[in-house]
């Protein structure tokens, strides 16, 4: 990992004042922990920070609620409401101006130094953004940010971006790219960056955020890509006050009873396509009603299904939605790009998790339309 990149990021942050932090839509633990952790780091450095994440489709998992700064997450980017009128005054000087609103019209009176002032046509500037830097965390590309990028593409184009990630498929879309593929989690990279910038800002709250990402991505230190560095960083975070027991409880022992009931119904109806390493299940309106759950509950169990079905590289959940069906596809395999795979179906999301609508009232037809893309 290049120290030059650390230096450039530290210098860039030092010169900025109002920073937007974001991550991929429908974030997992590493994504959300990275975003919140980086917000804490920036606030410790005296920066103004706005955290925006697209969670409009499923909402944010309530299990994240114990993480510091969780309540500060927004679903959208804020804009200035100011409108600026810009005129060319052709080397004239203005001594002052007054204005009044009359008959629903804004009238501006100028007091020039010279009587022959000639103004050019006004240019109107509005809906400007307050941020001078964007930090994107744990996202392989800008499209995976969902509406945060889609609704503000021009702003992203004109604003410098720092891109920090551990995924090998990252597209290096930032002006500064800190992509470390040997890291288990993006939060592991953030620890090294924070340590380089100012180690004494890593307190209990920041440590808890960073350790949560590492524990999730490493499956509680059971994944094969664990390195001595990962273990050393986790140990250091605990020594700095990270609450490991709380993280473990919230990650692995925090399922509501009705979520477990929905999980049981999904397991009872689980099918496996061994040829394509796919496991899929259908959730009906009756399943939601009997367990008193909703589509928001699905994201809390779909990851567990993938973890407990090692023969499946992809999990697909097809569920009833507004008289038709919607599908969630999820994978942990970095070689699979679900967004590309399901592009013909109008899928939204990122490489690892996508959703799309299936306009049929027949569960069999819905299943067929999904499985066809793997044939």
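-> sequence recovered:
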């Amino acid at each position: 990992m290049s120290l030059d990149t650390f230096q450039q990021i530290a210098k860039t942050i030092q010169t900025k004042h109002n920073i937007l932090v974001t991550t991929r839509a429908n974030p997992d633990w590493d994504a959300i922990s990275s975003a919140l952790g980086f917000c804490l780091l920036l606030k410790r450095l005296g920066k103004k920070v706005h955290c925006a994440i697209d969670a409009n489709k499923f909402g944010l998992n309530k299990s994240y609620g114990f993480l510091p700064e969780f309540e500060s997450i927004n679903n959208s980017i804020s804009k200035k409401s100011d409108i600026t009128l810009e005129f060319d005054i052709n080397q004239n000087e203005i001594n002052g101006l007054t204005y009044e609103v009359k008959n629903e019209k804004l009238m501006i009176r100028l007091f020039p130094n010279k009587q022959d002032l000639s103004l050019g046509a006004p240019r109107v500037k509005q809906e400007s953004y307050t941020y001078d830097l964007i930090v994107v965390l744990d996202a392989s590309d800008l499209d995976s940010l969902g509406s945060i990028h889609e609704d503000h593409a021009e702003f992203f184009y004109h604003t410098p971006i720092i891109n920090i990630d551990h995924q090998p498929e990252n597209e290096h879309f930032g002006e500064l790219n800190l992509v470390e593929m040997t890291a288990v989690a993006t939060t592991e990279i953030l620890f090294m960056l924070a340590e380089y910038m100012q180690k004494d800002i890593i307190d209990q709250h920041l440590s808890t955020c960073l350790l949560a990402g590492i524990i999730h991505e490493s499956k509680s230190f059971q994944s094969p890509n664990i390195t001595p560095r990962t273990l050393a960083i986790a140990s250091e975070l605990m020594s700095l006050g990270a609450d490991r027991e709380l993280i473990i409880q919230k990650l692995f022992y925090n399922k509501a009873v009705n979520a477990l009931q929905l999980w049981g119904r999904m397991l009872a109806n689980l099918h496996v396509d061994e040829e394509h390493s796919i496991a899929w299940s259908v959730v009906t309106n009756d399943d939601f009603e009997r367990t008193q759950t909703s589509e928001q509950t699905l994201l809390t169990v779909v990851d567990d299904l993938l973890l407990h079905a090692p023969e499946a590289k992809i999990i697909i959940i097809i569920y009833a939605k507004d008289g038709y069906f919607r599908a969630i596809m999820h994978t942990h395999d970095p070689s699979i790009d679900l967004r590309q795979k399901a592009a013909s179906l109008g899928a939204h999301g990122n490489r690892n998790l996508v959703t799309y609508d299936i306009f049929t009232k027949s569960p069999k037809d819905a299943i067929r339309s999904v499985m066809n893309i793997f044939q």
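Residues 82-127 form one domain.
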